[in-house]
Amino acid sequence: MFEHKKYTATGTFSAAFVENFNFHWPYSDRDIFAYNPTTNRYEVSKIFLEYAYNFKNWTMKPGFFKKFPEMQHDIAASDETVDFSRATWTG
Predict the structure, then answer these.
(1) What is the CA radius of gyration of the chain?
(2) Amino acid 80: pLDDT
């Protein structure tokens, strides 16, 4: 059973979550949205939703489980690291 107070009493859980969370998205950030000419609006793309709804794409790095080993059977693990030096932002 999830003990809400145990994980929210301090910022330890939140910090570990942010530091170790990984969402597998192999496409460009530009592929998250797609233009819909019928509505003349941008919408979340179908391919992004496919990845978002597949929980295999939501993982935690091993560092998270070092702090919260009781969750290792509830959340998928990944040793994949993100290379932020290659990341770009075009806003």
Answers:
(1) 17
(2) 60
